[in-house]
Every structure is written in C-alpha cells, then in structure tokens.
C-alpha cells in the first residue's frame, strides 16, 4: 500500500519542506503484455489498475497501438483509488508504451479538484514505471477548488521514467477558484527521470491566493533529472513558483539541455518566484546548457525594481549550492538571470537567439541540441544504449571504432547503420556494418563479438566465470568472463535500495566453496581454479523504521529520520515498540536527542535546575546542554522539561549545538531581526532544516511533534 504523496505535502507545509519516501515491494515474477486499440480497452486497463492488478508489476507491458479520441468520456485518472485516510490503494508500475499515439480530447475538468482525486492526470500516481511515446491533448478549465497534484501524463511519478511524451493541455482558472498544488506534464517527480518531452499547453492561474508549483515539464522535481525537454506554452500566474521547465527544483535535481520559448507573464507584487527555466531552485540542484527565448511580459507585474524573485533562468534560490553552467536568456530590461546569482545565465537578444550562430555557441560550450534547416531547435533524438560485448573477456588492448571514431562501451547511438571496426591483441581485425534497430521503447541493443586467436603459442587454458542469473534485489558482476588458473578475479556487489548483501559464494566445478577476500566498497576477490566457477548471491531487506516501531509507516515523511535516529541510539521510542510520532516533543526530549546525537558525552557537573532531578533520564543531557550554551532554562531556576518544544526553541537548540552563522537573514514576517531565534531560523532555512509554514510565516510559537523534531535533527546532521 502506498501513502498518497499528495496529501502529505499539504500537511507537512505546516512545519517542513516535503521529504516523502516510497517503498516498493519485490517485483512480481509473472510478466504480462496487453495491446490497447480502443477506448473500451483503455478503460478496461484503467479498471485493472484500480483493482490492483498492476501493483509493483514492473515487468508488465502495456502498448497503445492506436490514437484514441476520448470525447464524451469523463476522465478519472488511472490508479485513483484512495482510502479515507489518504492511502493510495493501487497504482501502475509497469511500462506504458504510447508508440507515438495521441490520447485526444481528454476531459480533465469535470473531476479536477474533487477530494477523491488528490493526484490527477492521465495517470494518478505511478511507481517504478516507464511511460513513453505518448501525446496527451485536451483542456482543463478549473472551477473546483482544492489541493491537487496535477500532471497531464502523471500527477505523481516516483522512481519512474517519462520520455518521448508531449503534453498539449491548456490549464486555466477562468472561475478563479482558490486552487493549490502543482500543474505540469508531471505534477511531482521524485527520484525520476523525464527526457525528450515537450509541453505545448498554456498555463494561466489568476487567483492571487492560489498556491501552485507550475512548470511546463515538472511542477515539483525532487532528486530527479529533467533533460532534453522543451516548453513552448505561455505562463501567466500569481503562483509561488513558476518556471518554463520546472516550477520548483529541490534536493539534487537537475535540468539539462532544456529550453523554453513560451511567453512568461508574472503577476503581482514580486512575492513569488518566476523563472524562464525554473521558478525556484534549492540545495544541490543544477541547471546546465539551458536557454529561455520567450517573451517577458511585465505589463501586469507591479513589483519594486530591482526584481528579486524574477529571472530569465531562475526566479529564486533557497540555498547557496546550485550549479549554473552555459545558460542563456532573452535580454529584457530589469530582468536578471537570477537576482541572487547574476552569473546563472548570459543575456542575449531574442533576434540573436533565433539564429544558427546562437545554437552553435551554446552547443560549442557543451549543450546538446539538434536543429533543422532554418535553425529552429529540435530535441535530441533518443539515444540507444549500445553495448559491445567482446569475448573472450581476457582479450587485451581491445579498440572499438564506430564510423572511424574510437568509442567506449557502452556507447549511445541513434538508430541507423554504422561501420564498426574492432581490434585486439593476437586477433584478426573485425570489420562490419551494423544496423541499430532496437525496440523504440527500450532504446537498447547488445552486440556480441566473439574472437578466436589469429596465432601465437599461448597454450594456457581459460575457464568460465558464471554469475547466477536468478540473483534478485541487487547486482553481482565479475571483472572478467574468463580467467586462467591462479588469476585474481574481482566480484563487485551492489544491493538495490533497501537491501543488503546476505550471502556471497563462489564454487568450483565440483561444488567446493572458494575463499573470498573482502576488499571493501562491495568488492571481493578470489583465485581462479582450474575449471569454471559459479558465483551466487542473496540479498536481504534492510531494517526499516517500521521494524523498530510499529507506528512509523515505511512511507511516512519521517521514516528515514526515525530510522537514522534508532540506528544511532538517539531514540528508543516511548515503549511497547512505539515511537509516538504525533505526541508533543518536550524540552527534555529534544535536549536528550541532541545529547545522544553528540555521542552522549559525560557532563563536567550536573545542572542546578529545581525541576530536573539527578536521576531523571534527561539529567545528563540538560547538564551537557547548559555547559555548551545550548540552553539556560526558562527562568526562575527552572528548565521546564515537560513543556512542549516550540519551533523557535527547536531550531535554536539545533543552531547552538551544531550550527554556524550565515550571511542571509530570515525572511519571515513573524521573525523579528532582534529575536533570540532570528539567526537560528536563518541557519535552518539555509541548511534545508525547515522552510517555514507558508504564507511567509515561520510559526515560531507553534508546537512540534516528536516526528517533526527528529526530522529537524536528521536534516541538520545530514547537512553537517
């Protein structure tokens, strides 16, 4: 069962930046493949997903083999069954190949904003899925209010890949409903890749109280990559974060080789982020080889100059660690590349950006674009992953040339015919033409070339190294496929996320186990015997937070934080196998968490607070906190151990324990510059510990739960 990510964001906005996680079940061994050629077959497929027939079924293949017109069909997203607690019951995890076909006249409007569809689009939410070659066409005229992750292809895509897709859906709120969430081709992309995609739809959000992350390709991208994508649609809005490609880019996400040519028309007084490529960018993000060549319409923009949240590349930056490289934007008066990073891009005239000289310039600096005869940009064609497997593996000085150019293996090639030349020591040179005609959905091709010696007196035999084909939940590779007796062979083990190596064995031809030497970093070595060997391995699930505490769901926003705290002895829970995530966190608990995170150092003397007894579990923690200037109590000789910790107190404790002064200031209307917690709040925002509760507020006096405090602590120590 998946926890609906859409509901989490609205809840977590009270205290945190979203940190969702998704756990996936083991793949189903049975595969399936269906063909869709009619509307009825599409609806039958949607019903099957809603019934749970595609949960974690990553080997399932669904092929759209005809254009479909959905005129007269009131659309409900595929995978849209949620229970009353907001848990997503069923979802799609397989491969959906659109094969270049179009789903037209999709009626999103009738069900948008209804509480039973919090994640909305052609798909509601997909997990571990691949969606390719699909065009969605339609309109969305918003009249229902509500919080919705909207993406024309998928409302939410987690651990998924979307490529070769086109969105031609216009989004407008002519009723000026008070709407919130995301709007894009993919509403929320987490741990996913979106490439070779294009948005053609125009987006318009006119209500000044709407809270939206709006982007042509992704509304919110977290730990995801968006590359080789284009936006040609116009954007007019008040939304907090709007970008031609991505609305908000956070947590190690990247936008590479993308461009936007749609008109950008920000509204309001400059209190929202608006960028030609990304509305707002966060810690560890990258924007490379991108350009914005659309019109900037400031006729309804009433912000005071210089504009601080409007940029040709990025509107706002919430962290000092983004990477900008080789980006360009249309030269417009008073519009910088990014107010915080003027070097984020280079201004060019629109006239120049429409010439072939400009395309040559951006390409020469590392961009990867193709252009037609009149210089109009084209998205790069999808590459085929071509693996040249040369056997026997012990051949030395192997050189592979494709069309006369030496290449590595594997190499990305487009479909076509290539002249291949392969040479190796003591082997005849191989010359042949090869034609890349791989499946257009998987973009993969393996070419195996087997050689025999062209002569020589080397008579030492080689023996095969066979790696078991039934290894699951991880990969095991050998550094060679054949070896001579006495050779050192290296085995590399890489568990899948959420798994660890349980057992690794290498047996000779008689079934005898060989000695393995652990070299660290997942590498093991053994000496090759006189005969073939077989490598076997098993992987076991890693312990999760749910294994420690029954009340910490694996997909909760605080699961990773609680797991970290439990593993490191920072918390043992509240007893009876429970963590108590929703219980108020007391002042005694937070200083104890901090003390344990610091290694439980012995204090020099005990504290003298009247309300802290010497035998209290938190006595040493309080004494340590006083010695290190983390707290001085609440006055009148008291510490108030049972008082609920506020947001101001929590970030102040953290700041005094491990933080450092930062140059930036806390930009919250409820955080006065002379308040005791002002520097702490600035540090917390700078380091991704918290971004406030929304509407420009930090909520210093709001109380915090145990889950929230542990998450604060986890984020702070991850960035330490």
Structural commentary:
This protein is about 15% helix and about 35% strand. Mean pLDDT is about 85; it is low at about 1-30 and about 455-460. Strand 42 and strand 43 (about 430-435) form a beta hairpin. With about 725 residues, the protein is an alpha/beta fold.
Any chance you could write out the topology, listing elements then pairs?
Blueprint: E1 2-3, H1 5-12, E2 33-36, H2 39-50, E3 61-64, E4 68-69, E5 87-88, E6 95-107, E7 119-120, E8 123-127, E9 130-141, E10 146-158, E11 161-163, E12 166-172, E13 179-190, E14 193-195, E15 198-199, E16 203-205, E17 211-215, E18 218-222, E19 225-227, E20 230-231, E21 235-237, E22 241-243, E23 246-250, E24 254-256, E25 259-260, E26 264-266, E27 273-275, E28 278-281, E29 286-288, E30 291-292, E31 310-311, E32 314-317, E33 323-325, E34 328-330, E35 346-348, H3 350-353, H4 356-364, E36 370-371, E37 377-378, E38 384-391, E39 399-402, E40 405-407, E41 411-413, E42 416-423, E43 430-436, E44 444-450, E45 462-467, E46 474-478, E47 482-484, E48 488-495, E49 499-507, E50 517-520, E51 523-527, E52 533-541, H5 545-548, H6 559-567, H7 587-597, H8 619-627, H9 647-658, H10 678-686, H11 706-718
Parallel strand pairs: 2-3, 3-6, 4-6, 6-9, 7-10, 8-10, 9-11, 9-12, 10-13, 11-14, 12-15, 12-16, 13-17, 13-18, 14-19, 15-20, 16-21, 17-22, 18-23, 19-24, 20-25, 21-26, 22-27, 23-28, 24-29, 25-30, 27-31, 28-32, 29-33, 30-34, 34-35, 38-44, 45-52
Antiparallel strand pairs: 1-5, 36-37, 38-41, 39-40, 39-42, 42-43, 45-47, 46-48, 48-51, 49-52, 50-51
Helix pairs in contact: 6-11, 7-8, 7-11, 9-10, 9-11
